[in-house]
């Protein structure tokens, strides 16, 4: 194998990558439209994330979290894969952890998996309902200091813990907060 020698000036440092971090859309995707998926992709592009991870929940996870009926995991996952192919954007990934586990996956386990696999910093893209649900968990305060939240729209009601950590989340349409 032949090596190619590159000459660079003394002290040269390659330019830092402008794209950083991972935006994780954590949802059942039962009621999420293609337009809402496109909004999440646009948010990831505007805020220059390295990856947009679509994290569909297994039906057992949804059942324990919300008690609402959903389509089977594979139907929702196939829809996400089809949407991703239509977009033609290489930075979008569909996470399949829950499909491999085939059972209830606690949010803590999902977040640990994401932090092991994807580049930091981490942002969760959530609907207001899912954000309030996340804030109701006892581990919320442990995780909110490790990641930030981007809500798809302004919530009508805000969980007290979510209000307490108002500085750790913003709404997608608001743009980057300074």
Any overview of this molecule?
It is a single chain. It is built from eight helices and six strands, in the order E-H-E-H-H-E-H-H-E-H-H-E-H-E. With 178 residues, the chain is of the alpha/beta class. It has a single domain, classed as HUPs (Rossmann fold, 3-Layer(aba) Sandwich), CATH 3.40.50.
Under CATH at level 1, the class stands as Alpha Beta
- What string, H for helix and E for strand, traces the elements in order? EHEHHEHHEHHEHE
State the shape. globular
Q: What is the terminal-to-terminal distance?
A: 49 Å
Strand order of the largest sheet: 3-2-1-4-5-6
Query: From the coordinates shown, what is the CATH architecture?
Result: 3-Layer(aba) Sandwich
Task: Tell me the strand percentage band.
Answer: 15-25%
CATH superfamily (homologous) name: HUPs
Number of helices in the DSSP assignment: 8
| Poorly predicted ranges | none
Sheet of most strands? 6 strands, parallel
Whole-number tally of structural domains: 1
Radius of gyration: 18 Å
Query: At the third CATH level, what is the topology name?
Result: Rossmann fold
Category by helix and strand content: alpha/beta
Secondary structure: helix percent: 25-40%
The average pLDDT value, as a whole number, equals: 89
């Amino acid at each position: 194998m032949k090596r190619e020698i590159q000459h660079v000036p003394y002290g040269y440092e390659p330019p830092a990558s402008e794209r950083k971090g991972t935006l994780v859309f954590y949802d059942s995707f039962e009621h999420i439209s293609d337009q809402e998926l496109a909004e999440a992709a646009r948010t990831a592009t505007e805020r220059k994330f390295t990856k947009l991870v679509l994290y569909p929940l297994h039906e057992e996870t949804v059942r324990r979290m919300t008690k609402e009926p959903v389509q089977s995991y594979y139907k929702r996952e196939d829809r996400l894969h089809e949407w991703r192919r239509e977009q033609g954007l290489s930075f979008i990934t569909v996470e399949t952890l829950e499909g491999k586990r085939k059972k209830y996956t606690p949010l803590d386990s999902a977040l640990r998996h994401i932090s092991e696999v994807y580049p930091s910093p981490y942002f969760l893209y959530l609907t207001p309902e899912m954000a309030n649900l996340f804030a109701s968990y006892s581990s919320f305060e442990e995780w909110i200091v490790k990641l930030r939240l981007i809500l798809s729209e302004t919530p009508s009601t805000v969980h007290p813990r979510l209000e307490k950590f108002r500085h750790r989340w913003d709404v997608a349409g608001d743009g980057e907060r300074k």
